[in-house]
Amino acid sequence: MDHQQITKALDGVGHNWTTAAAAIGKSRTALVRVSQRHIKARSVAIALCALIDKTPTEVFPDIPEYDREPPAETRARRIAEGKVKVDTALRRGRVLAAHGG
Description:
Layout: H1 3-12, H2 17-24, H3 28-35, H4 42-51, H5 56-59, H6 71-98
Helix pairs in contact: 2-3
């Protein structure tokens, strides 16, 4: 979607740039600049998408990183998955040791 389409979508859900900015907690200028692709701000883009009930891919197909998991979340997820694997392996090892394996 381009800036004008996002503006219309906001209007369709009862928002303008000022009320959207207040709802998101960012400046009106920041929202408009993200919409116009003058700056990149994932949190603003995600919030805009939420307000108009669209996915980042629908609104910003030209900026695929908006629809990707942030690096910090990827790292946290990988650590959590790794801990589960390690815990499972350790429990299995204890079971094998208890049964003479």
